[in-house]
Amino acid sequence: MKKKYDAVATVGKYTAKDGTEKKRYLTVGAVFENDNGNLSLKLDGMPVSPEWSGWISFYEPKPYAGNDAHNQSKANGYAPQEDDNIPF
């Protein structure tokens, strides 16, 4: 399965240093696509803020900075890579 989207909820608002009001977001999971093209939602948490509207939005994942192997694996749903050499 390949990660397609980040699942994000708006859980409140805050005031930035410049005085503008901004929304507070919480990534609650991810949407994955399997080989058949079907989509699945994996929730890592649920917002409990009283300001949460009940809606979860899907955004294309942001690219990870650097070559951190863990972050790359996480972005691909921990699917084994072709060049993974498991020593056991």
Can you give keywords for this protein?
88 residues; mainly beta; 8% helix; 4 strands; four-stranded antiparallel β-sheet
Task: Please sum up the structure shown.
With 88 residues, the chain is mainly β.
What does this structure look like?
Strand 1 (2-15) and strand 2 (21-33) form a beta hairpin. The chain is mainly β and 88 residues long. The protein has one helix at 69-75; strands at residues 2-15, 21-33, 39-43, 57-59. The protein has a domain at 2-61. It has a four-stranded antiparallel sheet with strand order 3-2-1-4, with no helix packed on it. It has one helix and four strands, in the order ββββα. The chain starts with a strand and ends in a 13-residue tail after the last helix.
